[in-house]
């Protein structure tokens, strides 16, 4: 395939999963029709993929898929430098135990060089050499743990990395990863392989999200260390997984030419985690504000009954159960109100059934309605309050949309919700006032109190309506976002062209982004 301008690298999102990152991706590509894109989708296994939720725009010229747990079996032949490659691999793994990634460049070049690489995923799965390396590392670092647990942990820690090393990667002027982790590592490989640029846009902080998953995962054994007094520890095996993702983030931060996130809180976390402040920029999410503002000007058919909605996929991360419990508390104190859950139940059918059962147990009947995927232009005009009870978010589009429509919001204090509702670091933003209120996570009582306050205090609701509309119009216009990414991509292509004609010529990315 021919070289594209941009290679977008996505992990577990577009085009198979509906959500904030996928919405952002689709809008970005669709609004830059003159820029050619290739896409690399990184997933767990082909067996977990259902169907594409988005139709790829015409300017997507290539679409590749990499599945981390569906290994490409490359047996190869007897290879030169095989012994030295195993020694280098053992040194690399040993360094990783101490947080040292300095051998990354060497291992990437050694293991993937040429058509007959020195070590393949097949070797990681089946070779005696890999077994011997793990055995030596086990005796050196973790002699009191179960060897079987350690061996299988290492196997599954390393196999996805080898999948990426051997994966076909489209050639592009700039690689743009939508998170650190596997996507960031693949972007770093693309940069090295083709002499390109690397941009990183973190919607949520990857290591923080993985920490939540790892700490709650029933599949990672939280081991008992053997000793005179057996005791449970917060797992060394869990720590191995977490260290891996920290190191992948470090690789992405070190190699990226630009590090972008959606709001100030995330940027402060990135810098704390090792990102170079000189590389960091903020480009928030954006929407077609005028379109949503027009919905708020439409008269509602039913002003006697109040309408409250949670908008989002039905999954544990959205904590729909807290919303249901809050609905019960509101209905007990406020008669004329209907609650909606507007979002797909397909992501976690078991959780959806649990939510339905909880609503039935609380005897909510027709006062709480699961509507599935809907046309939001039909629902936004009738809503009086929008609620978000998530345990984790980045910068949710739904809050920006609600603000543009003029709907006061109640949201948990996660991700960028506080900055959206109260204002961020931009000059004049906070002076606009609050567009809603934030609550603690997993607090149906607090959520219910804030909903009732907005339903009964018309003056407060009106102030929040005005503040939300002004904030969306002033800071979250989609065109501004598109223009800044156009500048980013143009900088990368321009730098590449400049290097061909005059290797000493340089372009200033920070200046390019500021001037938009």
Task: Kindly describe this structure.
With 516 residues, the protein is an alpha/beta fold. The chain folds into 3 domains: 4-72 and 171-282, 3-Layer(aba) Sandwich (Rossmann fold), CATH 3.40.50; 82-155, no CATH class; 289-475, Glycogen Phosphorylase B (Rossmann fold, 3-Layer(aba) Sandwich), CATH 3.40.50. It is built from 20 helices and 15 strands. The chain has a 7-stranded parallel beta sheet. The longest helix is centred in the last third of the chain and has 24 residues, at 478-501.
List the main descriptive attributes of the protein structure presented here.
single chain; 516 residues; alpha/beta; Rossmann fold; 3 domains; seven-stranded parallel sheet; six-stranded parallel sheet; 20 helices
């Amino acid at each position: 395939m021919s070289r594209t301008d941009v290679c977008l690298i996505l992990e577990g999102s577009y085009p198979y999963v509906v959500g904030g990152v996928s919405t952002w991706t689709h809008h970005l590509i669709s609004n830059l029709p003159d820029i050619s894109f290739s896409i690399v989708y990184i997933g767990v296994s082909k067996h977990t993929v259902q169907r594409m939720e988005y139709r790829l725009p015409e300017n997507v010229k290539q679409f590749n898929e990499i599945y981390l747990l569906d290994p490409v079996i490359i047996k190869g032949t007897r290879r030169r430098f095989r012994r030295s490659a195993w020694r280098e691999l053992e040194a690399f793994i040993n360094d990783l135990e101490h947080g040292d990634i300095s051998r990354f460049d060497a291992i990437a070049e050694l293991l993937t060089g040429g058509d007959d690489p020195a070590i393949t995923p097949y070797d990681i799965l089946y070779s005696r050499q890999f077994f011997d390396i793990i055995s030596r590392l086990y005796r050196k670092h973790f002699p009191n743990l179960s060897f079987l647990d350690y061996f299988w942990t290492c196997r599954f820690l390393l196999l996805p990395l080898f999948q990426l090393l051997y994966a076909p990667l489209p050639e592009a002027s700039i690689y743009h990863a939508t998170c650190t982790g596997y996507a960031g590592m693949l972007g770093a490989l693309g940069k090295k392989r083709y002499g390109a640029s690397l941009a990183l846009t973190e919607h949520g902080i990857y290591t923080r999200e993985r920490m939540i998953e790892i700490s709650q995962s029933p599949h990672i054994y939280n081991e008992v260390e053997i000793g005179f007094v057996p005791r449970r520890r917060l797992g060394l095996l869990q720590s191995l997984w977490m260290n891996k993702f920290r190191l992948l983030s470090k690789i992405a931060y070190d190699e990226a030419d630009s590090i972008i996130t959606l709001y100030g809180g995330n940027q402060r976390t990135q810098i704390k985690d090792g990102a170079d402040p000189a590389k960091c920029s903020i480009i928030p999410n954006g929407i077609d504000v005028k379109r949503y503002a027009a919905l708020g000007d439409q008269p509602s058919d039913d002003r006697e009954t109040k309408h409250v909605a949670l908008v989002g996929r039905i999954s544990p991360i959205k904590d729909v159960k807290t919303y249901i419990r809050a609905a019960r508390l509101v209905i007990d104190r406020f008669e004329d109100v209907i609650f909606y859950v507007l979002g797909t139940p397909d992501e976690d059918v078991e959780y959806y059934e649990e939510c339905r059962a909880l609503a039935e147990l609380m005897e909510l009947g027709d006062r709480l309605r699961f509507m599935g995927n809907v046309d939001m232009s039909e629902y936004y005009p009738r809503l009086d309050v929008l609620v978000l009870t998530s345990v984790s978010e980045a910068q949710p589009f739904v809050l920006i949309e609600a603000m543009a429509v003029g709907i006061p919001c109640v949201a948990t204090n996660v991700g960028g919700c506080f900055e959206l509702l109260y204002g961020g670091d931009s000059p004049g933003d906070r002076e606009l006032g609050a567009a809603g209120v934030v609550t603690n996570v997993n607090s149906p009582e607090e959520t219910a109190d804030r909903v009732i306050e907005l339903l009964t205090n018309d003056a407060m609701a009106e102030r929040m309506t005005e503040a939300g509309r002004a904030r969306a119009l002033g800071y979250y216009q989609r065109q501004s976002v598109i223009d800044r990414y156009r500048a980013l991509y143009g900088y990368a292509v321009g730098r590449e062209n400049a290097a061909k004609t005059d290797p000493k010529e340089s372009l200033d990315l920070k200046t390019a982004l500021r001037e938009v």
